[in-house]
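Reviewer comment 2.1 asked that we show a complete input and output for one of the modelled complexes. We chose the pyridoxal-5'-phosphate case, as it is the one discussed in the main text.
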Amino acid sequence: MLELSRKAAGVAQSEIRIMSVECEKARGINLAQGICDTEVPEPVQRAAVEAIHSRQNSYTRLDGVADLRRAIARKMREYNHVEVDPEREVVVTAGSTGAFYSACMALLNPGDEVIVFEPYYGYHVNTLRALDCVPVYITMHPPEWIFSREHLQNAITSKTRAIIVNSPANPSGKVFTREELEFVAEIALENDLFVITDEIYEYFLYDQNQHISPASLPGMADRTITISGFSKTYSITGWRIGYAVCDVRWAQSIGYFHDLAYICAPSPFQHGVAAGLEELKPEFYRDLAGEYRAKRDLLCTTLEQIGLAPSWPQGSYYVLADASTLPGSNSKEKAMHLLASVGVASVPGEAFFSGGGRNLLRFCFAKTDSDLQEACRRLSKLSVAATMR
Ligand code: PLP
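Response of the prediction step:
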């Protein structure tokens, strides 16, 4: 009898996509998915269109076009304080997702244990599962999403091969401090582990928070795979441009696995992103953070007013809110209640935990100002309804 693979049974549609479908049915406002409705920066748009017109439409070198690799290496030096050779240590990928998948293929074996901080980004965990690796969870606690150093130390076994870091984090909005990252680095060095770091929200920082790349810490460059991309920074989630940078020993194999699945990242869009890195000034990135800070403030203030206490995010563009006051015995029921009663979609907190999250909902504020304002107007009705009861 024909059957799906054994792996297929363990991989289901993400709760985020499921809530987006429910939202469409209910004609709600979708604060479930991070789609970035903001404008694509002009140089990025222009250079991509020019690249199509000037026939840059074929496969590129498997690790990407030279202009983009050089621009990424420069950005890594200036913003992330990490030195990389653009000829051998930069792999341009089909989104940061392509980079993460290829890095896991290149570096991990079935049965390897990998440390994951939870709440986690579901793609990290599902990719590990798809490769028969074993996620080992370190739970972070709100409101600042701190983790126990002792738990981390005790979680390391002879099978541990890597630690995944995501800062600024989805869904918690946590920005790891230098001290926390130094501790992670110490553990990685002591136990000879890889650190795979997803830095896709590196420019989405609020208040006084600073982005620190683990690869910039002493002794860490050789064992760290730094992954990022342009989906969020340039609002081009559908273009699929990301990268992995790391020591040449790992970069070559990551490139081969990426080639196997994707051949290369889309050529004209690589040129668009290269122009963005070349032409956009530091103010662009500062203004972006300012714009999203205002969105965060609006959403978090509204959530506070209606009694869904948020953990104010320090970075990224998500917020986890305490939905204990909503009816429902789990986070899915609470999310469905919110959608049915005020027409706003969120993601059930349980999608981000190995066991917890029953009282949490995740809201995304990467929305146009008018959509976010309308969502907040609708959410405000919740408190009116509650007080009328
Ligand atoms: N990493 C994290 C933590 C994310 O939240 C997302 C998207 O939501 C991605 C990666 C996907 O990035 P990309 O579009 O570059 O594949």
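The CA atoms of residues 100 and 227 lie 7 Å apart. We note this here for comparison with the apo prediction described in Section 3.2.
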